[in-house]
Design goal:
Elements (H helix, E strand, L loop, with lengths): L2 H22 L2 H19 L2
């Protein structure tokens, strides 16, 4: 991955998080965080 691609992806992620915070009060971010925690617990169980 080049520096340019990494920078574009980083900016895109920050814009999407900022948009979620402005438009939906971060509810989508909270939902995805909970699902990610459930997924990591599930992966740890099968390890």
């Amino acid at each position: 991955m080049t520096n340019q691609i990494a920078l574009i992806l980083g900016i895109l992620i920050l814009v999407l998080i900022g948009g979620d915070l402005l438009l939906a009060d971060g509810t989508n971010l909270v939902f995805l965080s909970k699902k990610f925690l459930d997924f990591t617990e599930w992966m740890a169980f099968w390890r």
